């Protein structure tokens, strides 16, 4: 049954978790390389999703569903978590968190563009305006008035990877439009089947050392995998399920980037560049225009 107070509680809890992730990524990457972080975070996420399904009495059903669903689960699992998080974590490894996080947040704009190409959705004038605003924000954040220089602290490769991550994430959700599995069970199956592939990739990239991470790296991977890659997804679904109107919950995502900057500044110790505020403002304005267009 709809329960707006419960929906808002679930939504705010999810937003708070998302807001800590840029900081968690950077802190954990001080102790492990991106490929190892993807592997260990995926292990913990699989365990968390499996535990959630077990509590709901649906774990056996999800495992049995792999007999017929593996053809869907494996390719989706190669995108998320394998390739997407490899690209995203490498972007965070190369960029300041205050740059990587807002750029990655433009995935919703990328999704609307891909939906127009692959799903035949019509782009309105407001969609075009939203896209222009969001990517103008990306340019402002990236240039910092100094261009792409060492002094600006911006890696061209890191920026390309951050933008590429939005394509991967948006493409993943486009592919999910044809997925008939239960969302949580489907995500669990994707992660489970991706683990052997990730293990082989990590071995090839980093060798045996990746499988014996330091305690701080393992703890960070547990936090990221359990919360960001796993349970936050279930919390967000619960928020949408209980909401009297999905739009009343979806607007909560606009709180995440500003809150994230607080953690980035006070926990990571990054001095927030003025361009970050201006660029993030344009990105959020673009997302707001897009959201308003959809609600109309």
Short description:
The protein has 296 residues and is an all-alpha fold.
Query: Which spans have pLDDT < 50 for at least 5 consecutive residues?
Result: none
Overall spatial form = globular
Give the termini distance in whole angstroms: 25 Å
- Strands, count: 0
Structure, explained:
The chain has helices spanning 4-29, 34-55, 59-64, 66-94, 97-104, 107-118, 125-143, 156-176, 183-206, 215-242, 246-250, 256-268, 274-295. By secondary structure, the chain is mainly alpha-helical. It starts with a helix and ends with a helix. The relative contact order is 0.23. The model has no long low-confidence stretch (mean pLDDT 91).
